[in-house]
Amino acid sequence: MVEDLIITKSGKVNNYLHLIDVKAYGTQRMLSVFLGEFDEGSVLLECGSSLDIKNVLKYFKKHNVSLSSFKYLTTTHHHFDHNGGLWKLYNEIKKHNPNVKILTNTITKELLNDFEHHMKRGSRTYGNLTGVMKPIADSAFQIIGPSTLNNIEIIDTFHIEGSEVRLCIIQTPGHTPDHQSPAFLKDDDLDFIHYGEAVGTIYHKSKLLSMPTSMPIYFNHDKYMKTLESLRNTIPIKAGFGHFGLVQGKQNVRTLLLEHKSFMKIFREKIIEFYKEKPETKYVLEKIKSIINPRTDLSIDNNPVLNGITLGIVYGMMVSLGYRTISEEELYYYNKFYSL
């Protein structure tokens, strides 16, 4: 039993970093948002869907975080559950600070504005729980090229209680082609990185167990595993996960990344095995649940959102293996963005 290693409750986790449970889909432990508060201003990492923005703003108010303090709104990727409400939050914060910028890459910017196909696919699984996405003006963005771990570029430098904290963003494709991971360097160490969905998810509050993030249409197995391998070489003191929480301690983060690499191999092999037994999505899904269900302390069968997520990671891996196809239009986008 691992205790006090995975933080899942909203609040401040060190002298500058907050974990915010936005209660996505109306329930706890579905989406993590992170907030960095510094002498020079604030940085938000993710925001949730348009339905989550009211809870984000409520947290700011409760913890006396002024909307005028925000310098950057950063992303991991374009998916509605992570940043579908960015247009809404940006419009609200801009009233208090016209200079606030959405800090992201060119692909995320394009997909945050060209969202029809993504929302259509999302609504088939989650219904109206996807919220609403709306276009965001060019002037809202500050476009960056995410760094590699071998050549980290500092985007901005902040201070807190006499310490210097530097913001950087690492490229972490595979879950999606635009996936990036915002990080903070403190005292020349990687103090925190928000993995988003770059290296799996955690739906357990006390055990270092991961689940895949092989969601269609953009999951690319080879790039995902390459990202996982590269991240294993630079371990942070704290690591954030989009779903869900924050893992503390380098050894615990390292253990989880190794565990995820091992489980991804098993997961892929089992998809192949079950598909060979019976090439039906429903059959593979039911068989894989015996492997997935023990990895969470949440009830999948009684949670329609987790049911949808399980279907997504199975179907996405099947697409990756060539067992299922996506539409020609979706394939165009896949090839376009992974070729950049």
Task: Walk me through this protein's architecture.
The structure is a single chain. This protein is of the alpha/beta class and 340 residues long. It has one domain: 4-Layer Sandwich (Metallo-beta-lactamase, Chain A), CATH 3.60.15.10. The strands form two sheets. The chain has a seven-stranded mixed sheet with strand order 1-14-13-12-11-10-9, covered by helices on one side. A seven-stranded mixed sheet has the order 2-3-4-5-6-7-8. The mean pLDDT is 96. It is globular and about 60 Å long. The protein is built from ten helices and 14 strands. Helix 7 runs antiparallel to helix 8 and helix 8 packs across helix 9.
If helices are DSSP runs of H or I spanning 4 or more residues, what is the number of helices? 10
What class do helices, strands and sheet pairing give?
alpha/beta
Mean pLDDT, all residues: 96
Give the CATH class: Alpha Beta
End-to-end gap: 43 Å
Shape: globular
Order of helices and strands: EEEEEHEHHEHHEEEEEHEEHHHH
Rg, Å, rounded: 19 Å
Kindly state the number of beta strands: 14
Uncertain residue ranges: none
How many individual domains? 1
Fraction of helical residues: 25-40%
The percent range for strand residues is 15-25%
Q: Which CATH architecture?
A: 4-Layer Sandwich
Write the CATH fold name: Metallo-beta-lactamase, Chain A
Strand order across the biggest sheet?
1-14-13-12-11-10-9
Sheet with most strands: 7 strands, mixed
Question: In CATH, what is the homologous superfamily?
Answer: Ribonuclease Z/Hydroxyacylglutathione hydrolase-like
